[in-house]
Amino acid sequence: ARRRKRSAHEYIAKIAAGDRYVLSQAITLVESDSPRHKNLADEIVSGCLKIPQHNTMRIGITGTPGVGKSTFIDNFGLHLVDKGYKIAVLAVDPTSQHTKGSILGDKTRMEKLSRSDNAYIRPSPAGDSLGGVTRKTRESIILCEACKFDIIIVETVGVGQSETAVHGMVDFFLLLLLANSGDELQGIKRGIMEMADAIAINKADGENKAASEFAATRFQSSLDLFPQQYKWRPQVTTCSALTNSGIDNIWHIIEEHKELMRRHNFFHHKRHLQEKKWLHNLIVQKLKDDFYQHDKIKDILPDMERKVCDGNLLVTTAAKKLVDLHKTN
Ligand code: GDP
Questions:
Q1: What digits encode the pLDDT tens for the residues 262-278?
Q2: Burial class (CB in 10 A: 0-12, 13-18, 19+), 164
Q3: How much is the ipTM here?
């Protein structure tokens, strides 16, 4: 017999009661690209947004593959679980769009944390655009918070635009680096460095310890040259995800940041700015979906494309015609 379909109301009630199984199913709906699931997913997210917020913390963690993100989150997450928090780990991995195996996805990651009853780990959603993937992650954050998770960790690989997206959805942004990653930093990583609320030089153990501490001093001097945001001086520290050293200090830095943000009323200010951006992203996304799913547009678009390519129609004229057609229908 076919299982009776759960209503949005039932989903919301079960999520609010901390049911992780239903949380997972709801996230699957949110991640689905099928229009069939869209309305139900929207209703669930809207319902979860109405659940009064408890005191949650969203932490973004980024770093290139191999820097030690999963090892770090495994131990960091357990550390927080020991402190009594419920932890959800979500991933944004834009590479999973192109290759079947995502960088963050397949191998068994965060083995210890995944066995904890107070942790929930969700691999990266697939999607045809970074925009799609980030929408799914944003909505999943809302669902996890409604499910009473206190700390949401959003992990991303430091290889593209996804850092900016993740930075736009978290309260604290942590960058993991290695002592000998100096060269690449001059170029591509500068923008990411500017977003960091803290940098941790990972693998500061064994023979690497001294070099890591030296690198930390160096990075601290570079960070001190950037303009401060929200009166916060970004901190550079060292840690070893493997031996678990320095992990507690990183949590301490995050708490200090939160304290400062709350004291100056920046905490909610920042979230409100992020929400405003999210609103605009949603508007654009909805208009776009609406446009491309429109029957008339679908009919006429291939022809217009052909005419533009053949030089029989100006691209600007084609765009205007299509948008006008959409508006009047
Ligand atoms: P990710 O790709 O960023 O998630 O990196 P992983 O967590 O998978 O780590 C990559 C490799 O580095 C693994 O072999 C880890 O055991 C190792 N590793 C991670 N953290 C540390 C650390 O603090 N010290 C040392 N020596 N090795 C580490």
A1: 999 999 999 999 999 99
A2: middle
A3: 0.99
- In this structure, the residue with its CA closest to atom 7 of ligand 1 is 68
* Nearest-CA residue for atom 5 of ligand 1: 68
Q: Which atom of ligand 1 is nearest to the CA of 104?
A: 4
Strand order in the sheet with 119-122: 119-122, 87-92, 151-157, 57-63, 172-177, 198-201, 235-238
125 C-beta closer than 6 A to ligand 1: no
Taking the centre of ligand 1 as the mean of its atom positions, its distance from the CA of residue 214, in whole angstroms, is 20
Structure tokens that stand for 174 in this block = 């942590």
Report all structural domains of the chain as residue ranges with CATH numbers, in order of start.
1-51 (1.20.5), 53-264 (3.40.50.300), 279-328 (no CATH)
203 CB under 6 A from ligand 1?
yes
* 326: CB partners within 8 A, 6+ apart: 290, 291, 294, 296, 297
Buried b (16+ CB within 10 A) or exposed e, 188-212: ebeebbebbbbbbbbbbbeebeebb
